[in-house]
Amino acid sequence: MTEQKLQQLLQDMTLEEKVNQMLQLAGGFFTGDMMAMGPMAEKGFTQENVAQAGSVLGALGAEKLKKIQQDFMEKHPHKIPLLFMLDVINGLKTIYPIPLGQGATFEPELAERCAQMAAKESAVSGLHVTFSPMVDLVRDARWGRVMESTGEDPYLNSLFAGAMVKGYQGEDLQEPYRIAACVKHFAGYGAPTAGRDYNTVELSRHTLKEFYLPAYKAGIDAGAALVMTSFNTIDGVPATGNKWLMRKVLREEMGFDGVLISDWAAIEEIIYHGYCADRKEAAVRAAQAGVDIDMMTGIYSEHLCKLVREGEVPEALVDEAVYRILELKNKLGLFENPCKDADEEKEKAVILCKEHRALAREAARKSFVLLKNEEVLPLQKGRKTAFIGPYVDNRNMIGSWSIVGETKDVTTLKEAVLERPEGEHALFAAGCPVLGGDLKLEGFSESMEEQYSDEECAAMLEEAVKKAAEADMVVLALGEHRLQSGEATSNANIQIPQVQMELLERVCAVNDRVAVVLFSGRPLDIRAISARAQAVLQVWLPGTEGARAILDVLSGDYAPSGKLPMSFPYCVGQVPVHYNEYSTGRPHVEGKDKDRFRSKYLDIPNEPLYPFGYGLSYTRFAISPAEIDKETMTGAESLHVSVKVKNVGDAAGTETVQLYLHDIAASVVRPVKELKGFRKVTLAPGEEETVTFEIREEMLRFLTENDRWESEAGEFEAFVGADSSTVNCVKFRLDAPKDGGLG
Ligand code: BGC
After folding, report:
1. pLDDT, tens digit (0-9, with 9 covering 90-100), for 412-441
2. What would the pLDDT profile of 716-734 be if each residue is shown by its tens digit?
3. Ligand 1 centre and the CA of 100: distance in Å?
4. Which position among 87, 136, 140, 263 bears the catalytic label?
5. Domains in the chain and their CATH numbers?
6. How far is the CA of 701 from the centre of ligand 1 (A)?
7. Which residues of 471-504 are buried (b: 16+ CB within 10 A; e: fewer)?
């Protein structure tokens, strides 16, 4: 439809029709599960609201959605199609590793391919929009939603944000198998105080802009069609009613001109924040902030028409929002092709197809991070291995946001072992349940797991210990329950359940070749695991093909190559912890522990147990001292920092060489290090490669005292190494700084 026709359509619509476009309803209203005169009326919705709503959340399936769309459009006064939206986070039915695991691949192009395949499964199932990517920066492992993020670094998160948006949307939303992406949660949702979900966010504007906003911006620059508001406050004002945040920062400074949707009932929640007295005021605030779609409340549909007629909300505000929604429908080509790619036959062919499963396996094995290995991995052929632990015969490895993915499609570790030669000499035992009797998780609709009696638990444990003693080595598959991380799963203790720690102790007492395969949605406190076991492989929640991918790595068919996208804290008392902290006036100096008045703890180190960027392989790499081609950067010239990377072990492997920069003195205090580049190199034993990073002036810009992205003349350090703790450093100067504007 041409722009002119779209404008005409807007003018032809009644006020009621327009406000109904801003309403999003649950799928049940259209499938007959919720009738217009049942629970709907209680929620304040009328039949007219349903008949003219703009979008639907939570309905799926080509046949169903085609029917809903056709029936709906037949009755709609202006034949405006519905938008179908859903959370497709790490895949629809073929489940890829959780986003935090995808971050560990340090391979945004891979995340782009995963998003593209997720889009294909979604599009043929009738969907038009996914509420992904979630690009919130995260520093606090107590917050369960860290699993949905790609980690603690603005640069890495930005690359993944852009890649995922491109993967979902492609170049043109009308292309087959493309769906619209929604960058969320704007803004700062990843920093809830004390790691407690939905809690207040306290960020200085400087920190918000410098660390938290870049990934949203990258998603928007990549063309994200939607942005979702966050539940939290920013500067004391709930994001969903925050005019400064949405109008000034999002629209004006970041240039976003797509659809802004509230998070689930977030317009109503601004009342509970104590920001508005009632629903009417909430409608005014959200509309003024420019929230286009009201997800799951009736606040707009109850109040906006009246508010416009009373002159309290200008009709232009409604028109602006509705035009953006119509524009999105038009970009997807829905006026001409209301069911877009929905197709029952294609659903059968595409969902969980070979190609998607192969990609899920590739993404999973690249996401695993080898944290420790005292020469127990890879498994030695022909030796007897006992696979022990509650994750050995368990399909629950798809992550709590895999809301459509089914565990029945997941291969277990035991099945994956039995498919391979390793199966011949393998022993298996669960050893214990995932959670154990003492751990109760309340309020989940999904049941946690089977209940075992004390006697059954004791028998399980003894059987496992016996098999561990019999075997040459043990692969111990431990971890969080998949529902222990995700939305509303904050934890004050970030350890695996106690019952599994007991299993670890008993197994380690009878076998001194124990490799822990660790499943989790968040960094955990793994001091005890790391001290007790001879190897630790972090596998996150690896998805549908996770088990086969684990075997690829354990067997040595694929050398581990993942790097941590989030620091693994020493213990929970250290969080929030992140490598890119600001310099302090009293930095702790290595070896000066007796120097009392320093920024340090009395009882634990400052450093996390495993830092950002860390990860081993089955070989070792030597990185030479960094060299620089000139000492001063002038004008538009760039300079180059190089290292030689050599594989000095006896297996092939991949190293991710990382570049960090540090501005030594600036008008605003700078982080001690900031990731600015990385390169993955795959080398055969004995092979060497020179890795060169170009440093350009714009890489030195930051949010200065002028509140602009500028570089400043002066001295810098460039670090190149295998993780964020590297001290391999060269210095250089910048002589010709520049102003890069507002962002
Ligand atoms: C979450 C969002 C999600 C929405 C819709 C909310 O509870 O915070 O991330 O997109 O629900 O399912």
Report:
1. 999 999 999 989 899 999 999 999 876 777
2. 999 999 999 999 999 999 9
3. 17
4. 263
5. 63-347 (3.20.20.300), 367-565 (3.40.50.1700), 621-742 (2.60.40.10)
6. 34
7. bebbbbbbbbbbbbbbeebbbeebbbbebbbebb
